[in-house]
Specification:
Length: 615
């Protein structure tokens, strides 16, 4: 057996360069690069190793470990999970900064390889700088925090352990059902230790997506349920996009006279103007999609986790006899709420399901209702997004301005606060992957870093990041990284002077405005933050506009800029789209001295009666 002597870190770097994927007939590196912030736990080992392969595996320097991991996660999502990135940090805070991003990847079923440094395997210098010590368990380190938010976790304490660890890691990262973050904690002394690795370990491998075909019995049972439906409805989740099933989904809906509602992850699965597309479904859904979902007797859930925002906390589907057909590559998701499972890849599953259905079509009366609801919602939505001269525009009016100045291939990126709900209802996605929302973990601070990852995945597309002032203050450092790397973003920063979304929720549940908007917080001086000046200090082009008209002009200019642009606009924290949508289960206190809370509790108890529990 031919071998080569390398350090464990060098073996990792060389192995990663050998992993390939094929996209649209082109063989590409599976790993688009490695994000690295070096410290004493990885600079000598992984740092030296990455330098040696920098011509084949680029290393990118970030400004925040959580931010760079968000960028890596967004890169994978924008690449339909066909490509991914790795991230390496030192031990201690560098490592634990990535835990939140690992949770984002875990919830959203996205691949990212995390390579944090770890303690000394030989324990001779213990405790080392930044080492967490357990009084009762000598094997624990800070990296144990990654265990609940990793699909696969391993701690490498001997150089030869990296061989099975990387092989297992790759199987998880590329598996459509088990896909998610992998953490390999690298003991810092082991990174530098040498071993005679077999040359076969570094052989080039091209990873192709596994397309699981449906079981014949499950397929027949699912088809029988749908054929008996009078009011069937499709919910399209992120799995449609990961599978590349958009065209097949549209053809399926056309052939069988069905309508489609989209989750946050599934939005852009079909163009907004496709006759079958009713837009967002659930808590932040359109009136059209929710009208059909409420009346549906069969829900065909394609590639979705069916989280509470999609199901209205399991109170959206009103038909007491409704059935769910769960078409999902992961059996765990396919079986939720006693669904008829159809475990399969979304594209293949829809193709075979359509064949099994034959010439069956939904009743004409149901099809007519879908068309009417779509037309009605289109008129309603336009009222919310039309231009305005208001001193403080709403989020929807800002979205309208961004939409009017955008092109069909643009990508809008967002993550948390009030914007996801407004974008879910109002953004008109025209092309696949044109809507990039992190709403599985709803992670504030993802937006700018995520936008950078999206741009790195496809530099040809214009990337527009929409972010609130609260999220911007939480994490903005990768704006500087975007300038440094030459990846131009347009960032629209909506300043409502606080956490406007949660303030509205607080008041809706009977609470008094408290500790959300800056004016209602405990302060000595009410801050007046100059976001444009801050963004400019990070190297971006920045401006503050005073109206929707000025915003549209600034957006047009940003498209011609030579670097990232931040456009700041003040918005109203109290206004949101009050049509469409659905109840969401947010528990209201049973006991309170405040009458508003008591009234909200009564409404809450009434709403709970609509939840379908245990079926």
């Amino acid at each position: 057996m031919s071998t080569t002597r390398l350090t464990m870190a060098q073996a990792i770097a060389r192995f990663l360069t050998a992993q390939k994927t094929e996209v649209d007939g082109e063989v590409l590196p599976l790993f688009g690069g490695v994000w690295a912030i070096f410290g004493h736990g990885n600079v000598a080992g992984m740092g030296e190793a990455l330098h040696g392969v920098r011509d084949r595996l680029p290393t990118f320097r970030a400004h925040n470990e959580q931010g760079m991991a968000h960028a890596a996660v967004a890169f994978a999502k924008a690449s339909r999970r066909r490509r991914m990135m790795a991230c390496t940090t030192s031990i201690g805070p560098g490592a634990t900064n990535m835990v939140t991003a690992a949770a984002v990847a875990h919830v959203n079923r996205l691949p990212v390889l995390l390579l944090p440094g770890d303690v000394f395997a030989n324990r001779r210098p213990d405790p080392v700088l930044q080492q967490i010590e357990s009084f009762s368990d000598g094997t624990v380190s800070a990296n144990d925090c990654f265990k609940p938010v990793s699909r696969y976790f391993d701690r490498i304490s001997r150089p030869e352990q990296i061989i099975p660890a990387l092989q297992r890691a790759m199987n998880v990262l590329t598996d459509p059902a088990d896909c998610g973050p992998v953490t390999l904690a690298l003991c810092q002394d082991t990174q530098a230790e040498a071993y005679d690795y077999p040359e076969s370990f570094f052989a080039e491998k091209i990873w192709s997506p596994r397309r699981i075909r449906p079981d014949e019995t499950e397929l027949a049972e699912a088809a029988a349920i749908i054929c008996n439906a009078k009011k069937p409805f499709i919910i399209a989740g992120g799995g449609v996009l990961y599978s590349g099933a958009e065209k097949v989904l549209a053809e399926f809906a056309e052939k069988h006279g069905l309508f489609i509602g989209e989750t946050q992850a599934g939005k852009s699965s079909v163009p907004h103007d496709h006759p079958a597309c009713l837009g967002a479904v659930g808590v932040t859904g359109t009136g059209a999609a929710n009208a059909l979902a409420e009346n549906a007797d069969v829900v065909i859930a394609v590639g979705t986790r069916l989280q509470d925002f999609t199901t209205g906390s399991w109170a959206l589907f009103k038909d007491p006899n409704r059935r769910i057909v769960g078409l999902n590559v992961q059996a765990f998701d396919a079986a939720k709420h006693s669904a008829q499972t159809l475990v399969a890849d979304a594209r293949v599953g829809l193709e075979e399901l359509s064949h099994a259905l034959g010439s069956w079509k939904a009743p004409d009366t149901w099809t007519a209702k879908g068309r009417d609801e779509k037309a009605r919602w289109s008129e309603t939505a336009d009222r919310y997004t039309d231009p305005t001269n208001a001193e403080l525009p709403s989020d929807a009016q800002v979205i309208g301005a961004v939409q009017r100045t955008s092109s069909l291939t643009d990508v809008v990126v967002c993550a948390a606060g009030g914007l996801p709900g407004e974008l879910h209802k109002h953004w008109k996605a025209s092309t696949a992957l044109g809507y990039h929302m992190e709403y599985g973990y709803s992670c504030m601070g993802y937006e700018i870093a995520g936008g950078l990852g999206v741009k790195m995945a496809d530099p040809s597309r214009e990337v527009i990041v929409m972010v609130g002032d609260g999220s911007y203050l939480m994490m903005n450092s990768e704006l500087a990284t975007s300038v440094m790397l030459g990846h131009r973003l347009t960032v629209v920063l909506l300043d409502n002077r606080g956490y406007g979304c949660i303030n509205r929720l607080q008041r809706a549940t009977g609470g008094e405005s408290f500790n959300n908007l800056l004016q209602h917080t405990n302060h000595v001086t009410l801050p007046d933050i100059d976001f444009a000046a801050h963004a400019a200090s990070l190297g971006a082009q920045a401006t503050k506009v005073k109206s929707i008209a000025e915003l549209e002009d600034a957006l047009k200019q940003a498209r011609q800029a030579d670097r990232s642009t931040v456009i700041v606009i003040d918005t109203d924290p109290l206004i949101s789209t009050d049509e469409g949508g659905h109840w969401w289960d947010v528990a209201v206190p049973e006991v309170s001295v405040r009458e508003q809370v008591k009234a909200a509790r009564k409404d809450y108890e009434t709403a709970l009666a609509a939840q379908r529990v245990g079926d």
